[in-house]
Amino acid sequence: MAAPCSRMASRPLWQFITNVRRTGLKHTGVRQISLGSACRAATQTRSKTESVASPWKLYGAVCLQRLPVISQERNPIEDQFAELMHQMELERSLLSDHEQRLLEDSERMTRKQADNYDSDEEEADYGGQETITAQDQEDTWEQKLKHFQPALRDRDVGGTPLGSVERCLGDSLVLLVQQTVGKETIWLLPQAQWEAGETLRQTAERGLSSLPEADFKATFLGNTPCGVYRYTFPKEVRTERCVGAKVFFFKAFLSAGSATSQKEPFLWVKKTELQGYLKPAYLEKVDRFILNL
Amino acid sequence: MLSCLVYLRNSSPLPLIWYVVLHSFLMGVDGHVSQGPWFASVLTLKTSAPLRAEPKKKKKVDPRREQMVRERLKKKLKKLERVPPELIPIEDFTTPAKYMDETRVRGAAQLPFEESERRALLLKEWSRYKQTQHRAEMEAVGLAVEAQREALEELRLESEELYQAALRPDPLLFPFNHQGPSYTPPKAQYEAPEGKYNNITKVYTQ
């Protein structure tokens, strides 16, 4: 409330008293005055920010994840439990049509092979048709299944390179790139510096699309950043204007149909492997929002 | 006179004027029609409406009566139609009759003591495993939410405009579709065999 106070101080006392009385009595007057003061305060701060830029450089980074393509291997306990559930469900169920047919067929076979087989009676019931038994049908179905060869689950036993998207199909992978920040080239999530007139999400999208020799089609999950990493520059680079930088991370999922030609600058790593590539302070912040679910 | 009149009556129907003449003649003779009660009533019968050969007048009340009848029928129809529509049966909730058959029951095998013990212990271990898994998931989600909250805080300190832009919902995000993980990875250049199926789901209309 700096503005109205300064205004009031410049006026004589009696004017101040009448002002106060007016503000005390009329609620609408109070509201108008307070709104006006707020607007003035806001414009003042905005002008302040424009004139004095924040000492932090802004970056927008993208955490691009390739979601798992196949299901993970079961733990031993999960295996046991799955078996148990299957067994219990089988015990509590009723016979299905197919199983009943199997039973009937087997009974008929035993009756045929018995000594007192009355073929006329049997054929009178079934009309003398050559029926396909359920067992025969099962055999034909199994034969058909054998003709189909599904793709192998564990394809990267041969050791696919770290830069390939096809590695570790059972886990979600994160994209890392090598960029020069300051003097060093380090592995980090792809980022770009914020320019005036764009939102941070657009910065992140620009950072992703500006990667050399790669066009990833990603769906960004909303406009809100999922994490922030704030660091101060080393003393040599630090000036009054830029003390450090803030990197805002945005989450994105890799949609199907990405570039297949990938060279060394890219890495697709699991959450457990991040430790080998990222700096400790950076990793601490990034680890929180990368979920392994 | 009487006999000739009777003869006339028994012959073919006479034109109207003859009867009028007869009637006036009779009236003139006596002054009132009282040649006998039977005779008079017979004559009056002969001079009634159908023999005057006039078209039957439609009374004004008739169309209204017909309208009233029609309205009553319509009201009855509406009452019948006002019956509430039949509820669509949920087919999952009704057990089909063929599963109530007793011949379908599987022979209940008696479990040995060790087997039932093993099952009970395995179930307890499973519940413990799932509990730790759930706790880990909840913690991870909590950390992620905390990270987002910090990010928004820092952004607010930076600039209000970017903060407001970050808070705006993304209309293009939904509907969000993603193919989940399958057991085997997709085969490159696989042509699925063509097949047809008969859809026998019952469609109910109200």
TrEMBL record, chain A:
Residues 104-115 have a biased composition (Basic and acidic residues). It is found in: Mitochondrion. Residues 56-149 form the Large ribosomal subunit protein mL46 N-terminal domain. The keyword Transit peptide applies. One of its GO terms (cellular component) is mitochondrial large ribosomal subunit. Keywords: Mitochondrion, Ribonucleoprotein, Ribosomal protein, Transit peptide. SUPFAM superfamilies: Nudix. GO terms for molecular function: structural constituent of ribosome. Residues 104-126 are annotated as: Disordered. Belongs to the mitochondrion-specific ribosomal protein mL46 family. This is Large ribosomal subunit protein mL46.
Automatic annotation (TrEMBL), chain B:
Belongs to the mitochondrion-specific ribosomal protein mL40 family. Keywords: Coiled coil, Mitochondrion, Ribonucleoprotein, Ribosomal protein, Signal, Transit peptide. One of its GO terms (cellular component) is mitochondrial large ribosomal subunit. This is Large ribosomal subunit protein mL40. The keyword Mitochondrion applies. The keyword rRNA-binding does not apply. Residues 1-31 form the signal peptide. It is found in: Mitochondrion. Residues 138-165 form a coiled coil.
